[in-house]
Amino acid sequence: xxxxxxxxxxxxxxxxxxxxxxxxxxxxxxxxxxxxxxxxxxxxxxxxxxxxxxxxxxxxxxxxxxxxxxxxxxxxxxxxxxxxxxxxxxxxxxxxxxxxxxxxxxxxxxxxxxxxxxxxxxxxxxxxxxxxxxxxxxxxxxxxxxxxxxxxxxxxxxxxxxxxxxxxxxxxxxxxxxxxxxxxxxxxxxxxxxxxxxxxxxxxxxxxxxxxxxxxxxxxxxxxxxxxxxxxxxxxxxxxxxxxxxxxxxxxxxxxxxxxxxxxxxxxxxxxxxxxxxxxxxxxxxxxxxxxxxxxxxxxx
Length: 301
Description:
Layout: E1 10-11, H1 16-22, H2 36-39, H3 41-54, E2 58-60, H4 68-73, H5 78-98, E3 107-112, H6 115-119, H7 133-149, E4 154-160, H8 163-172, E5 180-184, E6 186-187, E7 190-191, H9 197-205, E8 210-216, H10 223-231, E9 238-241, E10 247-249, E11 254-256, H11 263-271, E12 274-277, H12 285-295
Parallel strand pairs: 1-12, 2-3, 3-4, 4-5, 5-8, 8-9, 9-12
Antiparallel strand pairs: 6-7, 10-11
């Protein structure tokens, strides 16, 4: 299960939720962008399309903060919760179909966020939830099964804060016939839970279920060293899609600091082995258009 990683660099999208917010959508609910799967699906399609038109060839679905338990807790029946997860993949495919006339090949990556994202309390930036690997795997498995059944091209196991959750996600992929990448959220040279990155990437290095590894939802300046740490323990393709460089203040619930995301850094990431390059929070379609222009001949057509 190698996925579409050979023959050039794949340009991924940027921050779906923060782009929705920039379009005037209120995502203060605990479901975050996943709420719009029910309330405003056309808005999600519009953002996927905007990233495609900017040059991205991978759309990451609006399922990052979605969970069956989260939907049910907000009064949504289990069967409808399953339908909403499936819809996240369908909406990305719809956007892909809307731009298909240009003949470019594009992919849909179903987002599988960490357990902490469903808690909506910022704990995905800490990890160490007090759950065992087995408990985390059991929690992730039903959502992965639903998303895989919707037939995305890839699963994006993203913003993983620690090694335990990485192990759980790998275990939850057992029998799933969809290629997946696994990307950690990091701070400096460690996972958010404080583990060295070479140890973190090593747990995925031998897994046939994981087609690529990397980092996301981190500072752009931390990416190159993280990719070097990954390359030291695996020859799998690498992925890189950091935030804008601004930081989320969990207590005040707003972004602080300066933007450091730049197309020039994207060239560094490619030189370090990245085969998927994109953005996360606060990285919008104009940013990805600049990256697409900068990468030029590196990009897979």
